[in-house]
Amino acid sequence: MASLDPADNTWQPWRLLAPSLTAILLLLAIPVAFIAVYSFWLRTATGADVAGFHLDNWIEVLTDPFYRDILGYTVWVAFATTVICALAGYIPAYFIATTQFKHKAFLLLLLMLPFWISYIIRTMSWINILGSSGIVNAALIWLGITDEPIQMLYNQGTVIVGLVHFLLPFMILNIYVSLYGIDRNLVDAARSLGCTGWQAFREVTLPLSMPGLAAGSLLCFVLGAGTYITPLVLGGPTDAMFANLVFDAIITQLNWPLGSALSLVLLILLGLVVAVYNRFAGMNQIAKSFG
Amino acid sequence: MFSGWSFIRLGTILVYVFMFAPVSVVVLLSFNSSQFGSFPMEGLSFRWFVALWDNAAIVRAFQTSMMLGALTAVISTTLGVLASLAMVRYTFPGKTAISTALIAPILVPEVVLAVALLLFLGAMGVPKSFPLLLAGHVIFTLPFVVLVVQARLVSVKREYEEAAMSLGAGPIETFFQITLPLILPAVLAGGLFAFTISFDDITGTLFWKPGGVETVPTQIFAMLRNSISPEINALGTVMIVVTVALPLLGAAAARRLSRKQ
Description:
With 291 residues, chain A is an all-alpha fold. Chain A has a single domain (65-288), classed as MetI-like fold, CATH 1.10.3720. In chain A, 73% of the residues lie in helices and 1% in strands. Chain A has a two-stranded antiparallel sheet with strand order 1-2. The longest helix of chain A has 34 residues, at 65-98. Chain B has one domain (55-260): MetI-like fold, CATH 1.10.3720. Chain B is an all-alpha fold and 261 residues long. Chain B is built from eleven helices and no strands. The chains are: A mainly alpha (291), B mainly alpha (261). At the A-B interface, helix 1, helix 3, helix 4, helix 5 and helix 6 of A face helix 1, helix 3, helix 4, helix 5 and helix 6 of B.
């Protein structure tokens, strides 16, 4: 509460912020700084950590083609996911924003629903669809198109399908928010000046919806590139993404210094993407979809 | 233009089918009476829900998730409401930086947050444990609460608070008598949001959970290692009911509350 006495107002916001900022400092800022230091330590064969300034982990992470290939694969999967989400997400966003359909509110509510349904459930649900005893194979066998179930799961394609399924609502929502804010008179004006419907869309609507498209793409790319669950559930042995390497290093091999270095590579890569976005668009657009 | 619009409508239908068909199949198959829980379906039955109820590990995972989600929601919402008040009601130096700091936990990839928290608190003597899980879930859900509560608080006129204070109410009394009732729907929404995110989380949870402790998502994940069983579909259905029905009930309650005033 802003007090009426101005002298109280200097410290009051900091008192209100103190618990949150303390939490962020202790549970985020210092831990990230800690792994930055930790990544220069060494894990010896006996399992003990050697403190100090060793470049070994970084040299391994940055020069070993194994890590470079998986980083490239991760960027490719996240990029493909983002492009598919943008193409497939624009259509329903445009429909909901412009339709006179009377159940529009219901369509919007449905759109929010996936945010409330667990990520692991949505991911594993594809096993029921594409698995060897899933609905598609059951249909193919019933139709006599095939005798044996076709192996459709556990490859790069299904990883991307799973990620698109997970991230599409983020994209649709962001594009919708941006389309919703466009003054319809602008399109009408373009039409009255002789634009075709398609021209009006390309020259007016599409450019004005760019902020939403960009915000949605950022979320899809960053969330897609940081996942390790989807490749574990829907990918094959060669579909590990960068976050899987982090998980293996930390949880399976217990090589914490190496895991720290790998985490930081992911943080820097995605941090750069966020920074570029922030430079051109600003973070406010993303906050808008919470309004 | 007609063909363009029908293309858009068809596309929209296809996207909605893509989003909802797989989840609907999970719900459908959880009522399958067949032994293998796959197609073709043999008949309707509740046997897999009964099997869940009899499975001690799943019941325990459910209790853990509920407890974790509830505590996360309470702590995260308390912190988030206080921070939102500062951000919306005051101007102070460094506000833009603080605003970024408050949403930083969702700007950092969750895997990185998970590793950093695990290793740092481990070095501080906090092992993989329930408190570590709780700390992780609180920090990860805090930005969502802040964003939801801030968005609502902006639209609450500060004149009401100023009127209360000019009539002699202290800041704390003003908060509980005036501000809190006005932002209550957003506070509840923020809390439910935090609960659901915590209840659903698997990315961080797999790093932070001690051996032998499972939440519902990690339990499902562990069961998937074998193969998809009808029990997993039933557990998925229960989870969908918890995370979808709760917010809908919450929204209905909030609407009733705000109508009363």
